Amino acid sequence: MTGNHSIETSRTQSTGETDKIPAAAPPRLTTLILLSALAVxxxxxxxxxLPNIAAEFRADRALVNLSVAGYAIVTALIALIAGAASDRYxxxxxxxxxxxxxxxxxxxxxxxxxxxxxxxxxxxxxxxxACFSIALxxxxxxxxxxKAASRFGYLAMGWAVAPMLGPMLGGLLDxxxxxxxxxxxxxxxxxxxxxxxxxxxxETALRSTRPRGNYLAAYGTLASSARFWAHAxxxxxxxxxxxxxxxxxxxxxxxxxxxxxxxxxxxxGMTPAGFILGSYLTGRYAARYALxxxxxxxxxxxxxxxxxxxxxxxxxxTHILAFFGPCMFIGIGNxxxxxxANASVLSIRADLSGTAMGLATAMxxxxxxxxxxxxxxxxxxxxxxxxxxxxxxxxxSLALLAALGAAVIERRITKLVSA
Length: 419
Hints:
The protein is mainly α. The chain has 18 helices and no strands. The protein folds into two domains: 23-203, MFS general substrate transporter like domains (Growth Hormone, Chain: A, Up-down Bundle), CATH 1.20.1250.20; 224-418, Up-down Bundle (Growth Hormone, Chain: A), CATH 1.20.1250.
């Protein structure tokens, strides 16, 4: 028990106070927003081009779809590796290497002559995902806890807008110039970001604080932190709620609500719009409140919205807004949750910030996907609206419980340190 307390309080003891800011010249927030936006733009920018890619390579559609599903798996692995590497070798080198690999991989996709080379280069493209996690770490190392959460909110807005615009840009480029134009543009954007990073991204990790043990020891240290697990579980369940929505909403709308494809596309956008709103609110107000308070309020909002939607569904309300209106609170809640929870994760161990962010990111992606997969088994048997809303409410409730658990742990740590 004593060992756990020493792990949990090391961040506070090493700095004297959790809000003390390390002496470092931070990059401009605009630079970090652009890095995070580029990290997510390739995820779905190529979606409109998948049929043309399959046709040109004469490949099965399921094989071509690996460029999307496989990409997500590789991003989780990249997060684990890049986070730990940035602790050991510094933030700036990892950012520059990740962007360099991305540029080469994007060019490789554009010039690929067969499906094997294309998929290999597409997997290498996922290296850019390291930039989002490291951008969060850089902000944390140059800001106080609450100020970091506020800046995370603005960063998350760029992270949310990019994938919304990606399919539109990708579809336009495909129609005008062919699918390879998507990857040439990504390579050009990568080169521009590389030049900007060379000039603006400075090293923020002090050599004296870099870990000297092996990687497994660093992960073991974090795995023994109850505070880390609570925040990671909260983010995984929050993301799981969103993944359940993405997978289940099209089925429910088509089967129960009878909406057209155009209506579905419009109303599905309400939840990402809610995420942008929640991220903006975090950027605007998070510095005024405790991080645990922000996360709990966020999870309560999500649960309340879904509870209203569940009640309306049980009462037989079939209007499309009675479903998508409450689901908008998934986005609002996640937009508030992710910046504050990430800031809390990064404050656990100053010398393991990158490792913590990488591990939390991998757990968020894998945990969210696992929750959504389990929920999909239930939704396949019943396309009823109330089943989908009830499933999302269950996942959101687990996130709320994790947030409450994190708040209790942090309160105990604060009392221990002040004693």
